[in-house]
């Protein structure tokens, strides 16, 4: 069996670059939410690594919760027509300032569905999106939402792995973000 690193074509963002950018995002969120207590909602599984580091970089009180929604059933990279909710929030978000924390904003269909599920029926005071990676060139038609906080934008249209992002549930534990070799797919 090969090592995970053997299947990385190249590193897109180093561990240090990621940590530096997350500190900047944490400072921005702390300033924007001064006097408030935002709820960070991690979209499992990919964003858990990002959220762990992000919440430690936020200097104001905040709480966390988790949701799991999937667009990819099983071991495939072919998206479902409609994203499926696998795990809901543990409590009410009515009147709360909510920040959805996502690993990658790609087609936007999953996040748009998630926002629809959270906005009107659950009545948060505010709802924003913080994504580590943004691939605007991959945005699907009809997606109207945009991320409010972006770690890195204009990500190339290649398969990204590491730092929580996976291919068939592997590579999440790489400390950097890289491009998966075609031969590993």
Describe, in plain words, how this protein is organized in 3D.
Helix 1 crosses helix 2 (48-57). The model has no long low-confidence stretch (mean pLDDT 92). A 6-stranded mixed β-sheet has the order 4-3-2-5-6-7, with helices on both faces. Strands 1-9-8 form a 3-stranded antiparallel β-sheet, with helices on one face. The two termini are 15 Å apart. Helices cover 23% and strands 28% of the residues. The protein has a single domain, classed as Rossmann fold. It is α/β, with parallel strands linked by helices and 185 residues long. The longest helix is centred in the N-terminal third of the chain and has 18 residues, at 15-32. The protein is globular.
Question: Which helices and strands appear, and what pairs or packs with what?
Answer:
Blueprint: E1 8-13, H1 15-32, E2 39-44, H2 48-57, E3 63-70, E4 84-87, E5 97-105, H3 109-122, E6 126-134, E7 149-152, E8 160-161, E9 177-180
Parallel strand pairs: 2-3, 2-5, 5-6, 6-7
Antiparallel strand pairs: 1-9, 3-4, 8-9
Helices and strands, in N-to-C order? Answer: EHEHEEEHEEEE
Low-confidence segments, ≥5 residues, pLDDT <50? Answer: none
- Name of the CATH class: Alpha Beta
Instruction: Tell me the total number of β-strands.
Output: 9
Report the portion of residues in β strands: 25-35%
Give a quick rundown of the structure:
The protein has 185 residues and is α/β, with parallel strands linked by helices. It contains three helices and nine strands, in the order βαβαβββαββββ.
């Amino acid at each position: 069996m090969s090592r995970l690193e053997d299947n990385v074509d190249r590193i897109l963002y180093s561990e240090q670059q990621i940590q530096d950018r997350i500190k900047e995002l944490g400072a921005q969120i702390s300033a924007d939410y001064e006097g408030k207590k935002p709820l960070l909602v991690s979209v499992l599984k990919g964003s858990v690594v990002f959220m762990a580091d992000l919440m430690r970089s936020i200097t104001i009180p905040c709480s966390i919760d988790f949701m799991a929604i999937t667009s990819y059933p099983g071991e495939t990279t072919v998206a479902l027509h409609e994203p499926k909710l696998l795990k809901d929030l543990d409590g009410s978000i009515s009147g709360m300032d909510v920040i959805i924390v996502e690993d990658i904003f790609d087609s936007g269909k999953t996040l748009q569905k998630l926002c629809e599920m959270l906005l009107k029926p659950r009545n948060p005071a505010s709802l924003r999106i913080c994504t580590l990676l943004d691939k605007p060139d991959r945005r699907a038609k009809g997606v109207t939402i945009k991320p409010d906080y972006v770690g890195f934008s204009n990500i190339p249209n290649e398969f990204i792995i590491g730092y929580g992002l996976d291919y068939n549930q592997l590579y999440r534990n790489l400390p950097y973000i890289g491009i998966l070799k075609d031969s590993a797919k």
